[in-house]
Amino acid sequence: MTDYDILREEILELFAPLASAASAERSRQAGSRLADAERQLRAGKLTVLVCGECNQGKSCLVNALLEDPGLCPVDTYYATNLVSVISYGPDERIDVTLDTGARRLITRKEIARYAGENGNPHNTAGARLLTVVTPNPRLSSGLLLADTPGVGGVYQAHTAATMEFLPQADVVVFVVDATQPMTESELRFLRRVAGTLDSADGGGDGLLCVLTKTDVVADLTEILANTREKLNELTPGAGRSIPLVAVSSRAKLQYLTDRDPEDLELSNFPALETALWSMLARRRCTALLGAALTALDEGLTAVLEPLDTERAVLVDTPGVGSVNAQAQQERLAALSSGDAAWRLELEAEFARLSERLHRQARDGLDEVWQHFDAEYLHDDAFLYDPDSLVGQLESDAALTVGAVREQAVRRAAEIQRDFEVRNGLELRRREFAVAAELPVPPIRILGAVGGDTAASADRLPQIVESALYGAGIGAALGGPVPGVGTVTLGLVGLVVGAWSGYMTVQQQSVSDDRRTRRQDLQTALGSVRRSQEERLDTALTELLQELSRTVLRELGSRLGEERERIRTTLERTAAAAAATAEESTVRREAIDRKREPLLRVRERVEALTAQVRALYEKAGG
Asked: Tens digit of pLDDT for each residue in 75-107?
């Protein structure tokens, strides 16, 4: 077991005794929140999205990384023609989703029949999504791998699906072929991805570039230097560069056969795994372990505080705790009233967020069309292959949608957290605080509409399938992204519809002049822009309205948890004040028996927080 696995199991062991104590102390809301947090840690997955242009060695890389030769088909031309999602399960199950929406169970031997270009030329079988659940130990801790067709290639719908989900992936592995210099289209993709990840997570610490096929390159030093130089140009002045690792997947697969250490050294996979697992370890420390420790800390406070207050009244100053709790109860009653001022404040904050995100969405679409006017129309690869141009526009629009959606979820949760702090609803009031020991985890709203937002990786097969069949990625995710689910479909439909108009114009044109082609494209596609903005504005408004309702529900849960705690405190302090000396002694002993195991849990939470922090720093945090 890895250090992460050990810490995860130790943290999970703390939930049961604390939940039992919450139930015994009638802390129903605290128990419910603990159950949510435990479920998120148990189900929490981290997603690695493997992408790149066609025929770069992505599938071979996945096979070598999972140490499972032959899992993903490896042909010589456009090997992968559908999205493959690979995750852990005790029993292997493989199914393929077809154009009709039907799912078909298949065997390993049949994968190439659907997923490879040689077995399924031009996708005549009508396959759209391959889902693999397998008992591979390298996936057992919750890792989910998504192997995608070539971005920017002939699979336009897949590319759009990949791009919209991309901002939510924990790590994006971009694969480049060492036998040829990086192309302008690859750099264009990476430039967009790097900027989007920076915007989505505030740090951009989730992009890894892998140079494959190093075993067939005569001078690796030169190609490495050239690739690093191009990558550094993508993030000028950022104080960091996109990590680059050069590997030979074939050498790693050969090592799995002969166990020759020289093959493993030639493969350089140990360096790749170190870089990848370090990125994932940092995400696990914050998004999974840190969030669980925070929930345990809050639950402990909710259960212990009434006991501590009652004990203090029994021992020292009868009446003081009751007065303080009564004042808090009155404050919470005011907050809970339907006409409370904070509801208006919350509406105002969401209004400001809406204005900012609508502006960001419009700016994103503006950038897409600026590239269209200033770059794509002057690139012969697009000018004489308009299908590729349409695919590029779809991908750019989808990436914009994904980034804005991720920003909306994060900013909404920050509004919630700020409110909790301002109004004393944040239960981490002690000197020790998980948030002070670890970086703030990626924000997730517990109890969001449609389920748990932190386990979105679990739904990646449904996300991709929904995008391919028209329901939209956002709708398939549920919860955090209602409304936006229709945006990608709307944008793609607009581009494709306009493209049919262009084809009509082109059929009537006898000129092969570049200027004429540009004018025809601008005429056919230029009218799409306003409709895109309108659809995106509408969907974003619906998303923010749903997020606002979600935050209100979550704050209601917080207020309920506080009311429970204070009510219990008042009842106990009143009983303590009226107790005789003999009754006080008996009650103190009972309280001490209850507190003892809870204090031991608190000690474990503090110790585990220090260990998680050390693991985070070890991983390069």
From this structure: 544 445 577 889 899 999 999 888 777 889 999
The 10s digit of each residue's pLDDT in 22-63 is: 998 878 878 888 998 898 888 777 888 888 877 788 889 999
pLDDT, average across residues 316-321: 47
Degrees to nearest 5, angle at CA 341 with 340 and 347? 110
Residues 6+ apart with CB under 8 A from 396: 163, 192, 367, 368, 371
Residue 508 in 3-state DSSP? helix
Question: Which burial class, exposed, middle or buried, applies to 617 when counting CB atoms under 10 A from its CB (0-12, 13-18, 19+)?
Answer: exposed
| Residues listed for the chain | 621
pTM of the model: 0.69
141/32 Cα distance (integer angstroms): 25
| pLDDT on residue 484 | 33
Q: How far is CA 331 from CA 200, 305, 309, 349, 417, in A?
A: 36, 18, 18, 22, 19
Look at the block and give the residue holding tokens 């006080």.
584
* HSE, side-chain direction, 13 A CA sphere, residue 431: 0
Looking at residue 264, its amino acid is: L
- DSSP code string of 248-280: -HHHHHHHHHH--HHHHHHHTHHHHHHHHHHHH
Cβ atoms within 10 A of the Cβ of 16, count? 11
Q: Are 57 and 213 in contact (CB under 8 A)?
A: yes
